Amino acid sequence: MKKISKLVGLTLAALAIMLTGCRKSTGSSTPIEKEEIPADAMRNFTDDSKESDWGIYGVEDLEKLSEVVNGGNNFKGMTVTVKKDIVINKKVLSADYLEPEEGPDATPTPGLKNLNSIGTGKTLVDDGDSAEKDFCGTFDGNGKIISGLYMYQGHQGLGLIGCANDAVIKNVILVDACVINKNVQRDEEAKYPPHDGYDDDRFGGIVGLVKSDGVTIENCLFAGVLGSQAAINHGADLEKNPYEYIGALVGRCTAESEAKDSFAFARIYGSHENVICGRESENLEQKNVTGVEIDSNTNFEDLAAQIEDAIATIKANLQ
């Protein structure tokens, strides 16, 4: 492990301070102990459950949703609603943020909960390709703040919703978020090592990969950092070789989709068509979408005010 570069560290530290100031209230990410767990809590879901509406009250419920969707239940016709502000990790982005090592034996930053995507794309396994798992329901963030999302993994379709197909994602607020694809490489001796074709693209903040039937993203906000580990390690030269597709709202959009009334504030390491959509952005119709790419020249006081206003807008426009 090594600390991220000084310039990047200062940028992340300023961003962390900014986002902390934006959080007006936070909820507990620990299990509900002193009160009865609500009947609709996602953690209560079983294979025999018949209900179509489920609630997210804490990290345990996000983890359960990921487990269920990645197990093959695509949640088509079902709705998941975030019921409380959730802190997954505290102050993910800071001057002490550690840049994870690259390669198949790499490990995530210690001390941070490494959340799995809700729906994942293909990954390389011993006996060949793994099956893609899609989320096909409605994910309603309900204007609650989800802070401290941290993902450091290697598979296509990396993001809060990793793979989405015929889905609706609305009213989601993600701040202090960090999504890093570890870019497992087969030939680490080459100047531009070829990626293995499974770990190198299709990752975003809200949705990593949009599938054949498209998605609708409405009234959502992402504020944080997204990056390809190869791009972080090898610098600007590698970013000219476009095999990472990174976007704050959508990583790769392979079907006609819509993003409306949403905000993207992101520091991006790696190739991307724009801050909102990393690749095939022509498939993503945008209506009233604001995208701000953060860099070392960003005025963080102005940005903090923008994000605060954007959060207020999301809460005022709950759908």
What characterizes the major β-sheet? 12 strands, parallel
Output the radius of gyration: 18 Å
The structural class is: alpha/beta
Number of strands: 22
Low-pLDDT parts are 1-7, 23-28, 190-199, 235-242
Q: Characterize the overall form.
A: globular
Question: Mean pLDDT, rounded to whole units?
Answer: 79
Calculate the terminal CA-CA distance, rounded to whole Å: 43 Å
Q: How large is the count of helical segments? A: 5
Order of helices and strands: EHEHEEEEEEEEEEEEEEEHHEEEEEH
Strand content: 25-35%
Tell me the helix content.
Answer: 10-25%
Notes on the structure:
The structure is a single chain. The protein is α/β, with parallel strands linked by helices and 319 residues long. Strands 2, 3, 4, 8, 9, 10, 12, 13, 16, 17, 20 and 22 form a twelve-stranded parallel beta sheet that branches. A four-stranded parallel beta sheet has the order 11-15-19-21, with no helix packed on it. A two-stranded antiparallel ribbon has the order 1-5. Strand 2, helix 2 and strand 3 form a beta-alpha-beta unit. Helix 1 packs parallel to helix 5. The longest helix has 17 residues. The chain is globular, with a radius of gyration of 18 Å. The N terminus is likely disordered.
Task: Please sum up the structure shown.
The chain is 18% helix and 30% strand.
